[in-house]
Amino acid sequence: MLASHADRERAVDVLCAGFAEGRLEKDEFDRRVSRVHAARTVGELALVVADLPQGPVPHPGPVAAVPQVFLATPRPAQNGRAVGSAVCGLLCLLTAGLTGIPAVVLGHTARAEIRRTGEDGDGLALTGLVLGWLSVGGWALFWLLLIAVEVLD
Question: Is residue 125 a contact partner of residue 114, using CB atoms and an 8 Å limit?
């Protein structure tokens, strides 16, 4: 994975902490900082700081292949019902509204789960809800108008 500017800054921070603690000499510190700025990948950065603790206080345990500093933060999982709601909402256009009610039901249950679990997908659930309710409302209006025309005739 290519290294970002933030990755390089974290590596330099680890080197600065190591230098301040007396773990690196000035010339070694300078060489490593130049290697950090020349590094293209996260793996190269990890090699530069692999023998240093990840901050001012040493952490017990073995050194990982990729230091914790460089690991990406995990994203919350996408809620499956939210995806289903959005798909059903979009299919309302192709199925003449047959998937409107499932879109509404899935959208409401997905939003409740998302609030409870912290998953991603609220926008998808809301999209499914809006499209589903538009479909249900459109069909309700259609049938009411059809009934009204029949009653007036």
Answer: yes
Phi/psi of residue 72, each to 5°? -70, 145
Per-residue pLDDT of the chain (153 residues; tens, 9 = 90+): 888 888 899 999 999 988 888 889 999 999 999 999 999 998 888 888 888 877 444 444 555 566 666 677 778 889 999 999 999 999 998 998 899 999 999 999 999 999 999 899 999 999 999 999 999 999 999 999 999 999 987
> Which residue type, as a one-letter code, is found at position 48?
V
Q: What is the reported pTM?
A: 0.52
**Cα 52 to the chain's mean position, in Å?**
30
